[in-house]
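Q: How would the structure tokens look for this protein?
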Amino acid sequence: MMPATLLHSRSLAAALVVTFLSGCSLMPTYERPDAPVPAGWQQSDTGDARLPAAADIGWQQYFADARLRELIGLALQNNRDLRVAALNIEAARAQYGVARADQLPTVGAGASMTRSRTAADASPSGRETLGNIYSANLASTGFELDFFGRVRSMSTAALNQYLATQEARDAAQISLIAEVAKAYVAQRTADEAMRISKMALDSREKTYRLAKLRFNAGVISAIDLRQNETLIESAHADYAAQTRLREQAGNALALLIGQPVPANLPPALPLGKQVAVNALPVGMSSDVLLRRPDIRQSEYQLQAANANIGAARAAFFPRISLTGSFGSVSRELDGLFTGPNMAWSFMPQISLPIFDFGRNQSNLDLANARKNIAVAQYEKSIQGAFREVADQLAARRTLADQLAAQERGYQAERERLRLVQMRYDNGISSSLDLLDAQRQSYALEQALLLTRQAAMNNRIDLYKVLGGGLVDVTAVTPVSAR
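A: Here is the predicted structure in token form.
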């Protein structure tokens, strides 16, 4: 008989070997690729360094318009695209649960009854016999001993796909908030454009009535009168176009919030007041891009591809699985759990690929190729994000100069219109001079309005591309008030 100490030593050694093999993994060590972008942006305007980053500013703080905040809240509750993204998270979580469960044995309970008849010729007693066999057992079927980390690699890949799905949902939320804000700004712009068009129409109708009196008196020609009529119809067409744009903007908002726009929303702020003042610092490192959920999503997908390489490598090595059961068997139901009726079975299986005609090697090559694709996609996502921020920073700087210049030009044109109107009323300037001044003033005011819309959209987009829109706060305190 083997000495107890030797038996104990061999058992301990076997346990250590199993533990070592269980900890073995053929998955490559993950290393984050270097970001293929500069360390920062060339813009010199750094903003207020005391302000937090965009990703740390809640959307309730960033947007100052209470009406807009209400619309964003409705969109986060009802938008169908965001709901689909959330359901995708549930599906990915369930898939990860399935993969993780493969690391542990599955134990099931079963019971059976077999009734059989033995023919007389086959019976030892020479008489036909009837018999019953009852059994009850606990069994584990096909549990794989994950010596080479195949199952763990697949579970890691499923985990990273699940995390990537969560990031996709966060990216969808950021995009949704920006879309709602821009649709709301478009609606406010259309409102303002309708107001300007109506004022221009009223002014031109007044001018036309005066021109008609002068035409009847023989002061002006029919050409001047028809010119006034042309401008009136042009103003009618502009007003109809702005009405259409306003209705379409309302339809876009209804789609984004998942319901008709409520009538009891808070009062709207004037165009240009939707965003808190000086809410974003822009003198920053490009490392802030790593906080964007779409970048994190791309990195999780890269890590999943890296884990799949481990599973493909493990396919070259033996796979060991265990099947076993423990229970009781009896010819009598009353004696199933009494007496010497214990029964058990234990069946280890090992399989080793020998000739697979390159299937495992092709699977490994495929896993490596997919990882290289994921690396390229990760780098491309960072480059795209860097360009988005750079574009918005350039637009922020140039739009401010453009807006200031257009405001000065519009004020100068308004003064010219006032002077021409006075000269026309006193019979000094012709109707053509007045119509030209009205036309120019109206065009500059419309252009100024569109630039204000572009400036507001730029502030919304800058908040979006810097990863803002995930923080949810209950107490709304505009950043500009800090």
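DSSP finds nine helices and four strands in the chain.

The beta strands are 107-118, 129-145, 319-330, 342-351.

Upvote if useful.
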